[in-house]
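Recall the central idea of this unit: under ordinary conditions, the amino acid sequence of a chain determines the structure it adopts. In this exercise we apply that idea directly, starting from the sequence alone.
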Amino acid sequence: MATTADIRNGLVIEYNDDLFTVVEFQHVKPGKGPAFIRTKLKNLKTGRVIPNTFDSGVRINVARVERRKYQYLFKDGSGYHFMNTETYEQTFLPEEIINAPAFLKEGQEVEILFHADTETALTCELPTYVVLKVTYTEPGMKGNTATNAQKVGTVETGATVRIPLFIETGELIRVDTRTGDYSERVKA
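Accordingly, the structure predicted from this sequence is:
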């Protein structure tokens, strides 16, 4: 069993009969009284982030998890299908546990977090940035670049992204999967 001294970002713990990952933590030693650890915990089932405080030295249950590389294959009525890049074993996941399903493109590498004891998938994380092709956008107007004006563009996965006026149909852009925002234009 681990103690609160072992808490770090990304650690998966069992808390209140559920699995949580530590989003951030801070050791606090007040002038009076015992030390404690202030944390933000993300529920792996619901995605909800809750604040929590642990007394210093308290025992915590660390869940055994494994991160495995998978490749996205396709989507059908039963869910999203992925293939393990080492064993070529296929698995499918529901949309709820994928962090940004709108930006999944066939052949893309993702990281799936598995509970080692039960072999169940907990989360599926896309890379922080993905490069996507703009399939449709309205033409930009000349002279409107003085401000940060944006327009809506559709990318190859079908998702819509707010992009600058100078981006045209057929260009490659980098999109932040955490927020769904345009990051930069990519030279082909």
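The chain has three domains: 2-62, 65-125, 129-186.
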